[in-house]
Amino acid sequence: MHVQHHNAHLSRSVQAQAARLVLQANLAYGESNSNGLSYVQRLKARHECREYLDQALALEPENAAALGLLGRVEMDDGQLEKAHALFNASLNSQPGQAQQYCNLGYWALKSERPALAEEYFLRALECDRQSAAAFGGVAHAKRLQGQFDVAYLHYRKLLQTGSHWDSVYSGMLTCAQHLQIHKADTDLAQDAIALLRKDGLPHQEIGRFVGAIIQQQYDLDNPNAEVFLDAAAEDELLILALQKTLMPNAAVEELVVMLRRAIMAEVAQTASLRDELQPLCLAIAEYADRTGYALAAEDDEERLATTINDSIVAQFAVREPQEALIGSLMISAMYGALFHQSFAMQLGQWNLVDWPLAMQPMMAASYYSRAEEEAIKQNFDEKAEELCLAKTDVPQAWPAWSQLAYRTETSLKAVMAQELSLNTDNPPATLRILVCGAQSGQRAMELAQYLNDVEVIAVDESLANIAKATRMAQSLNMDNIVFWPWSIAQRFVADGHQVHWVEVGRLPSPAMTELSLAALINSASIAGAVVHMHTSMAEQTAGDKQIRRLIAEHQLQPSRTSLRQLRRMVLANKQDAVWGNLLKDDDFYSLGGCRDRWFRPQDAAQLKELLALVSNEVEWKLVKARDEDGHSLATAPVQRQIQAEALGSEVQSLMGQNLSVYFQRRR
């Protein structure tokens, strides 16, 4: 009797000790997922968490909480089978745990089985109706099954009940891109305001969503709808949208042009800019800059803008104080970059912070950022090609983006092991990524920012893109990425430097006659290197082909005037089916985007050559293929198709199918 009592007492003390260890493990696990810590610190916390769990399980092998948390650690490390076994062991030990059904839900999401994940999250909700984690899991599962409207409403509910997690905002933003909006809806407008106000989200990705809401709010499809300037000047959604996105919507572009004209008409009449109109005026100026000044203006507006610019020159001549210039600069910036004006040199006497706070984003876009980018361009030989262009004809960077997408920091080695099931034994401490056709650098910077073991070389043929991306990287204090023109990348590879991962973005244009992308990648990639590419080319609408024919026929040059005229032609005939797909494309709403796709289109020959290179099965192995929705495909049929195509077989071509494919170099 005495012995039994002693054993029961001992097991209670052992249980208490195990519970303390699990508590410490939970704290360490929380640290390992903290965005405030560096990746190395988070790995250290993950290691501590494992140690505490090992000790707890040595004392109490069936401790349900310890088994479940160890499953989370294994899942984070990509060990999905071990994780699955541990979650089930935890449930065997203690049935009915909402937490473990949630864990199994996330395991199913990681295994690309969203329907199964939804079942697990619903089981978790049966165990605990209040579980925000389970409700959020249902939202993620719905989103990954393409049920964007249902997932969106789940995310909205989570925000309303106080779950302001980054993953909720990020999921809601992803869903918003897929919603069709057919009527004015105040809830949607409030959602859009919440997303635009949230820092750290890639607001550029919801331009279409926000534009559709504004189109309905202002009844822009109704030719008799009245728009009041004072009401627009107080519209928080409109002002945030102009400040943070580019809206690929012809009706919204017309609205912005109309509001700008109304401001200019009032200024012409009263010779002053009312305080109430200043936030809208500044937002339109930022928006106009983002479009590369694509917005059409009538002749009388252009004349008034010129008069205002002349008056600014006169104000500088008589040394008027800074405050006296402010209204005129705001109006001038709605029509052209301040950096391009004849008084640009005089603006340089002030730093950005010397201007009123509300003006600083507009002044940065219209003047200071452009000045920085111009200084960066001077480092490259390609700058010589711009010297003969008028200031307003110098190409502008595209795409226009302001924020990197939300990601959790990890390592390229982990991605190669977990996503592609590749062996990553004995890799160097730092892996080198080559991003070909990086454009203005968002994707390249996301790789550099979220992978802690890489250095990134991003290459593009547009000097404007290289300058913008370099400036953005400097502003983010990133020291593991460089942006180069192709000429420097070719010299770098010719000198014997090699890379471990190649990311193919926008393809070079036919103007790049000296460049073979396939040859460059063949020389640059070491044994074991991965090449990630897409099998389709964008920018191939009927409208694009028609415009390229016009350009060739009339030998047009890529000047601002030509680009605006081509756009005006499309907008004047927007009911014509030939322009339908072009009008839906983000590129059309920026002169930079139009210039790229019409005067520097992607070269299909480069893609064919690249597909021919990777079709050599002796040298390359297809390790993963995804469809447009991100679902993994069986690699064998895709590999056979690539092989047949390379041999000239009449199979359906992979080109144009928009697959995302990953190849690994065998030797």
TrEMBL record:
Gene3D superfamilies: Tetratricopeptide repeat domain. Pfam families: TPR_19 (PF14559). InterPro entries: SAM-dependent_MTases_sf (IPR029063), TPR-like_helical_dom_sf (IPR011990), TPR_rpt (IPR019734). This is Tetratricopeptide repeat protein.
